Amino acid sequence: MGQADIQERQVIVRDEYGEHLIVATAGQSLLKIMQHNGVEVAAVCGGSMSCGTCHVRLSPEDYARIAPPTKGEIALLEGSDHYLEGRSRLACQISAAELPPGAILEVAPDE
Ligand code: FES
After folding, report:
1. How is domain 15-107 classified at the CATH fold level?
2. Cα separation of 80 and 77, whole Å?
3. Which of 48, 74, 94, 107 is the best mutation target for the ligand 1 pocket, counting ligand atoms within 8 Å of the beta carbon and taking the most?
């Protein structure tokens, strides 16, 4: 595996406008790379895990591959009408480097 393979990974994020193929750069949150790549996602609190608006959903398989959410993150997500247990996460709480290459994520519908 080359250096580029370790530091840069491509994932797919779906928003209401379509699919974005983005590079999950190490050292950044998923929210940051989504914002840098034009993904339509709300982030009212700016990434401090207090608003719950950066809600994304992963496949159950990818969800299980990354570090689990804290109780605080789950509590925020459970307040959403679009919460899916075992799939919903806050993009600001996911390290991009954790995402499996080829992971497919979707931005949850607005509340
Ligand atoms: S941006 Fe507010 S919780 Fe993620």
Report:
1. Ubiquitin-like (UB roll) (3.10.20)
2. 5
3. 48
User: Which residues sit with their C-beta closer than 6 Å to ligand 1?
Assistant: 31, 43-45, 47, 49-54, 90, 92
Please count the other Cβ atoms lying within 10 Å of the Cβ belonging to residue 8: 15
List 20's β-bridge partners, or say none: 13
**pLDDT tens string 53-96:** 999 999 999 999 999 999 999 999 999 999 999 999 999 999 99
Put the strands of the sheet holding 88-90 in their side by side order. 18-23, 10-15, 104-107, 55-58, 88-90
For the whole model, what pTM was predicted?
0.91
**pLDDT tier, 111 (very low <50, low <70, confident <90, very high otherwise):** confident
Atom 3 in ligand 1: which residue has the minimum CA distance?
Answer: 49
2 Cα–ligand 1 center, Å:
33
Cα distance between residue 92 and residue 3, in whole Å: 25
